[in-house]
Amino acid sequence: MTYETILTEVHGEGERGRVGLITLNRPKALNAINRQLTEEVLAAAQAFDADPSIGAIVITGSEKAFAAGADIKEMQPQGYIDMYLADWFGAWERLPAVRKPVIAAVAGFALGGGCELAMMADFIIAADTAKFGQPEIKLGVIPGMGGSQRLTRLIGRAKAMELVLTGRFIDAQEAERAGLVARVVPAAELLDDALKTAKTIAFHSLPVTLIAKEAVNRASETTLEEGLRFERRVFHSLFALEDQKEGMTAFIEKRAPAFKDR
Ligand code: HXC
């Protein structure tokens, strides 16, 4: 498929450790998220998810903007019935459904839908230039791609409420302190760092990685008791895999494991 609003690349040679990179590419609109970009990001992420040679996915933007929000010019003329019948932003449910790990590498503005897209990733690595915010209130609307829900779960009610009600931006350091981002790195190192992190993940056993992602996600979906029971049961199931034998044998034999995704 040829894309017009994103760029896609595969990083890594050899059979393991390959990473799919998606770069948002609407520079004149600061990567504002319109319908075409939505469909293209989702198609690319699903294609990488289905490609057995890929172990992890990175989504990034430009130096100036990860994404400055949903496309305000596209939304401005819409009425309620247009938004409702199109189930505007509903398609984004397909991104968290991607089973492989997704890292958002964020430099510059990640505002509104841009911040929400970053939060759909499994974790965010931020450049020291990153700025996050949910400024929808200033446009007479509220977050519509998960901002009121994911931000609140990630950083807590008090800070999420303040950001959603004021539209204030926070810098990368404040985002890290709040628990929104996993790590802050110098802007010049952002992409290399994110790709290196993704490659580390992609070298591990794919089924174990998928199960680890599912287990961590379960923590925000269920009670502690149910979550602990789920973890223990899937932990037991890993002992059916050749990769468990290989990982533990390699440790005992003091060598690197050669995982086979089996
Ligand atoms: C459409 C956008 C855009 C957006 C920027 N642009 N953000 N177009 N949708 N979200 C366009 C501008 O119109 C301009 O195009 C070009 O990108 C460059 O932007 P500038 O404003 O000139 O750049 P700068 O002065 O550097 O300011 C950067 C900025 C500002 C602070 C990020 O662009 C800004 O405030 N953008 C909107 C941020 C926002 O409110 N996001 C939330 C959107 S709503 P032209 O053609 O004029 O050069 C949302 C929630 C969805 O995401 C859910 C609710 C429905």
Automatic annotation (TrEMBL):
Which UniProt keywords are listed? Lyase
Which Pfam family is an annotated match for this chain, by its short name? ECH_1
Output the superkingdom of the source species: Bacteria
| Molecular function, one GO term | enoyl-CoA hydratase activity
What's its EC?
Answer: 4.2.1.17
The record's listing under PROSITE patterns reads: ENOYL_COA_HYDRATASE (PS00166)
Annotated InterPro entries = ClpP/crotonase-like_dom_sf, Enoyl-CoA_hyd/isom_CS, Enoyl-CoA_hydra/iso, Enoyl-CoA_hydra_C
Enzyme class, spelled out:
lyase
**Record's keyword annotation contains Lyase:** yes
> Keyword Ribonucleoprotein: yes or no?
no
Question: PANTHER family of this UniProt entry?
Answer: ENOYL-COA HYDRATASE, MITOCHONDRIAL (PTHR11941:SF54), ENOYL-COA HYDRATASE-RELATED (PTHR11941)
Instruction: Give the family from UniProt.
Output: Belongs to the enoyl-CoA hydratase/isomerase family.
Q: What is this protein called?
A: Enoyl-CoA hydratase
